[in-house]
Amino acid sequence: MTMLALFQPGLYHLLAVSIALLTAGVAVILTKRNAVGILMGVELILNAAGLNFVAFNRYVWANAVDGQMFTLFIIVLAAAEAAVALAIFLNFYNNFDTINVDQADELQG
Amino acid sequence: MYDSLLNWLIFTPCIGAVLCLLLPADKAKNIALGTTVVTLLMTVSLALAFKTGMQGPQFVTTLDWIPAINVQYKIGLDGLSLPLVVLTSALSVLVVGAGWKIGKSPNVFMALYLFLMSGMYGVFCSLDMVLFYVFFEISLLPMYFLIGIWGGPRKEYAAIKFFLYTLAGSVCLLITMLGIYNVTSSADFINGNTWDMMALQSEAVQALFAPSGEYWYFARWAFWLTFIAFAIKIPVAPFHTWLPDAHVEAPTPISMILAGVLLKMGGYALMRITYPLFPDAASLFWECVATIGVFGIIYGALCAMAQTDWKKLVAYSSVSHMGYVTLGIAVLTRTGFDGAYYQMIGHGITSAMMFFLVGVVYERAHHREINKFGGLWLKWPQYGGWSMLGFFAGMGLPGLCGFIGEVMVLLGTFHAADRAGADPTFVYILGSFAAFGVVLTAGYILWMFQRIYMGKTREEYEHFEKPNAREYAIMVTLGIAALIFGIAPLLVFNYTHATFENLMAVIGLAGS
Amino acid sequence: MHAMLTLAELTSDQELIRKLLFCATLLPLVSSIFTLFLGTKWLKKQTGQFAVSAMAMSFVCALFAAFKFTTGDVEPFTWAIPWIPIPGREAGYLYLGLFCDQLTVALMVMVTLISTLVHIYSIGYMEGDKRYERFFCYLSAFTFSMLGIVTANGLMQLFVFWELVGLTSYLLIGFWFEKKGPQQACKKAFVMNRVGDTGFLIGFGILFAQLGGKVLLPATDGGMFDAIAAELGGKAEIMANPPMWLTIAGIGLFFGAIGKSAQFPLHTWLPDAMEGPTPVSSIVHSATMVAAGVYLTARIFPILTPAAHLFVCIIGLITLVMAACMAVVMTDIKRVLAYSTLSQLGYMILGVGSGAYIFALFHLVTHAFFKCCLFQCSGSVINMAHHQQDMRYYGGLAKKMPLTALAYGICTLTISGIGFGSWSFLSGFYSKDGIILGSYNYAHELGGWGSLFLWGPIIVAYITPFYMARSFALTFLGKPRDQHLYDHVKEAPKTMVGPQLVLALFAIISVPWILPWEHMIEMTQQSLVANGVTWIPGLHELHEAHHGIAAPLLFGLAGLLMIGVGIWMYKDGFGKAEFLLKKVPGLKILHTWALNKFYFDHLYDIFIVKMTKCFAGICSFIDKWGVDGLVNVVGLWTKGLARFTGGFDNKVVDGLVNGAANSARAGGQALRTTQPGRIRVYVSLLFVGLIIALMFALTLVAN
After folding, report:
1. ipTM above 0.95, yes or no
2. Which residues 6+ apart lie within 8 Å of A3 measured at CB?
């Protein structure tokens, strides 16, 4: 394994990007109080997952298209999720005049 | 035909009871009266068809009931049961009359009463122990409600006490019955296990319960268990304390039937079950049982003397009088048995009459405090006259029905002196104490009579309305019965004679 | 049922007598029932006449039967029907029936005669009473019961009627039950009689136990107990070798007589019974009922053992002396007569006990007449004196009511036993003399302290004329002590005076004319010899000796003397007596004692009545708190046990189930803190978890 090979884009690089995305998403969720921000963090995590699927598909079972399929699903899911989440946020805003998630502790056990 | 009539006799009151509940409440009294009259007629026709010379039961119906454990529906009448059935029927009519003015839901009252009648008939007619037990228990339940609903201030206490006390006795009976059932399985000469009372009196079973028999130990226990079961019902002192409470709280008609018939179940069952089944145990323990009987006579009389509640006095007089029944049975002589039986009949008449006489006054005065009465004789001369008849019959005055039972029991007691194994001195002392009861009885009855009937009429009773025709009819009927049975005891003994002959043979005292 | 007893076929004469006696017995009953139900509605004021005519018919029947019996030379006979079965004994039954011998017919005549006279007397005496009709009902019922005793053919039948006379006596004493006195008196009479009856029942029971059904058999020729005595080897054998049980049985039976004849110690009811109307006192409590005890004792004579004889005599003697003492001090005229009755009954009992039982029965008859008459006279006085019974308010009444005084006087002489030598025109002399003769023999037999049995009756023979003369003098002689009362008194109406005079006549003639004296001595001797009574071997000789010398001196003339003393002392009131009381030491105490009836009433009240009541109270207390308390305690314990098991069930068994739920809840409570509802927390936890899971997975892979 050479240094070149090290820079040769491969699975591990993609996984590294994915981890970065995931970490960024989590960090966003943990730090943001704004609901939309959190939603964006979630999107990041989803994208990290989607990247994983594509990456593994490419490098492990190159002839298969399952990974791509799942990634497509994830994109759709993310869209749907975003739509639902935004609807919830709207309602939440209507009721509480804010979208600060710390205020949303009605379901506290 | 008569066989089925006996079945009808037992279940007609049930039909009447159902009718009472179904039809409008104001019809209930008439239905009850009609039912009791019908049963009375049935009883009379049974008595007329009864063959006096026959020892065994007549009009027998036998049906399998619970074949798995050989329980039969077996009923019949013999000399031991017939007079008591007649007493029940006759008293029933009068009791309905006495309850004519019951205010609170008369239909339920009458229905319960009619159920009670079925139970009483069943007890006196059953020839199968399980059937007997069932009827014995059935008769408790209506009584519980009759006291508990229509009773006086402490009715709940009295009803519960009556119920539990008698039930405790029933448990003893049940234990013995189960034991007997098991024992009979080992008597292979019998066709399997049996509850049939007649079969249980057979020599084969008797041999098991004899001192030499296999089950002598059991027989001794069983004797005491059944004795206690029935002693509670009689009631024998010291198992009597449910009685004063039950009587004091019960309404008049219920007191009448309780004292008149229900107590007799105990004495009847002693003669029907305990003594014929365990004669050897009975003769082993006779001194003890007889002492209990005499104790009851004296103790009941003394307690009666101390009462200031009129009805309680009469209730304790029942304890005293039923002591003669216990004594008469305990001494194991034919005269004693006859006397005890007659005492039951006589007491059935007199106690019902005494309770009714109390009830008539109570209905008007709303209290029973003896010391607050006075001069009733002056106020109602006729009522006073009949009262005297009733109370003096209870006192055992010759020519009235109380006398014959008492004197026969006394003679029967002395008669025991020459039975084998009896100590004459003990018998004499026993007889002397029993005879002394006569003085105490006179004491408390006359003292009561003086305080209630004699003297000037008190002001508060001046406005009392006279007893009406219905009340007089009941008094007069009972009074005349007291007189007739005091003069003609053979009326009863003609029916009982053959059966008692047989009973004595079973107990092993034939000819004594 | 059992084999019936076969009785001898009755001859036609016997059959006739049986029917007559039957009628005589049942007529009063019929009359009684009739007046009970129809008296107040139909008969009203005619009730008296109706009852009297029924009684008169009864008397005629009895008289005719007696006539037939004595003239026709009829054998005694018995007739019976079975009543109560007593199985397993040879008799098989208690019988109801009739036994007829000389004594029966004689007493039948006596009772019906006296009863008829008393009925007549009552028409006058009870006039205007608001329960006039009822009185005749009771009186007739009493007569029926009394006749039942007389005709009874067995001890148990006797007992039945014995109780019935007790009942009627109760009703009659308590006739004026509005007042406290009669109430107490009638109850007392009944209960004390019952005490005696208990003894009777015990005695009878012992006989029954020992002898079996023989005691139930109807009486045979010789009376109720001859057959039984014969069974035991005859009276001679009984006297020689008395079995213990027979003594007890005899004394037991005699207790019945003690109760009925008011002997010591059951004597206190009789004076109290004077609370009843005077006609009642005259028939029930002097002439007939109380004599029934003597009759019973005479009937059981054949089975009395020597010890029983002694007992009977002692009881008779005590009563005799004690009652006479009390009669001397009483001021209530009826009470004087009551104690006199007691004393005379004591004579009779002593007579039976000492063997002279024929004389005792004879005295029973004579006493019945004169005592009935005395009571009727006292009743007339009381009635006229507006129910003032105290002699302290009387005096000089002879002028106002001469006929009554005459009758009273005759009977006073009779009861005093006035005689001249061995002859008297008064029946009382003969009968009392016979009894003293018997006791003389008995004292002779016993010797030593037994002479009490001689001196007791003789002393009382002196006291009797004295207290009778006292009552006569206080009532009829001297000056009136209550002028107001005296002014209102007049001679009693004919219906009252008539019977008095008839009775006085019978008091004179009843015996010497009907039954010759010598004949009676013969009879006594025969029956005693037949019964093997050893202490009368030379009765006749003794009689000669005693009668020839002692009798006239001892009481024939002594009676006259004592009457004189009595009249002299009391003719002018109580002055002389009070003087004596002051002067003679000790007399005052005796007087007080006697006046308080020797404190027997107090004694009984404290020791018997109070104690029984106290005992009853204790019993009741024990019953309530002991026996019933035990039951309640058992109930409470059961309840307590139920509470305990209930608690166990609640806390432990159910606790397990609840515990599971509770711990789940507690767990939830603890865990809920991890669910704050903040997304950041969730997410961070998620990642922490994820990291932990990854590390765990990695360690697994690494290993």
Report:
1. no
2. none
Residue C529, token pair as written in the block = 């010899």
Q: How many residues does chain B have?
A: 512
Closest partner residue to A109 among C672, C680, C687, by Cβ? Answer: C672
For residue C478, what are the domain limits? 386-595
Q: How many domains does chain C divide into?
A: 1
Query: Is the four-CA dihedral C433, C439, C442, C443 of positive or negative sign?
Result: negative
Put simply, whether C187 touches B (Cβ < 8 Å) is: yes
With respect to residue C399, please indicate whether it lies within any of the assigned structural domains: yes
Asked whether the predicted pLDDT for residue C514 surpasses 60, the reply is no
Q: Would you state the pLDDT for residue C221?
A: 54
A30 and C CB contact within 8 Å = yes
Whether residue C218 is predicted with pLDDT greater than 80 in this model: the reply is no
- Is chain C adjacent to chain A, meaning 3+ CB pairs within 8 angstroms? yes
Q: In the complex, which subunits touch B with 3 or more CB pairs below 8 angstroms?
A: C
Set of chain C residues whose Cβ sits within 8 Å of the Cβ of A38: 679
What is the rounded CA–CA span in Å between residue B144 and residue B403? 33
Mean pLDDT of chain B: 87
Q: How far is A37 from chain C (nearest CA, A)?
A: 12
Q: How would DSSP label each residue in B112-180?
A: HHHHHHHHHHHHHHB-BHHHHHHHHHHTHHHHHHHHHHH--TTHHHHHHHHHHHHHHHHHHHHHHHHHH
pLDDT along chain B (512 residues), means of 10: 85 91 86 92 91 86 85 89 92 90 85 92 92 90 89 86 87 89 68 77 80 85 91 86 88 91 92 88 88 91 88 91 92 88 93 92 86 84 89 89 90 82 84 89 89 84 84 91 90 87 78 46
pTM score, whole prediction: 0.84
Distance CA C321, CA C343 (A): 7
Best CA proximity match to C173, nearest among B446, B483, B443, B445: B446
Q: What residue of A is the nearest CA neighbor of C687? A: A26
User: Which residues partner with C223 through β-bridges?
Assistant: C220
Dist CA B109 CA A67 (whole Å) = 89
- In degrees and rounded to multiples of 5, residue C518 shows phi and psi of -60, -35
| Average pLDDT of chain C, as a whole number | 81
How far is the C-alpha of C111 from the C-alpha of C414, rounded, in Å? 20
Residues 629-658 of C with CB under 8 A from B: 631, 635
Closest chain B residue to the Cα of C179, Cα to Cα: B455
State the DSSP code for C652.
Answer: I
Positive or negative: CA dihedral A87, A91, A96, A101: negative
- pLDDT tens, residue by residue, C277-289: 888 888 888 888 8
Helix, strand or coil for residue B101? coil
* Numbered residues of chain C with Cβ closer than 8 Å to any chain A Cβ: 671-672, 675-680, 683-684, 687
At residue A107, the pLDDT reads: 60
Q: Which CATH class is domain A11-97?
A: mainly alpha
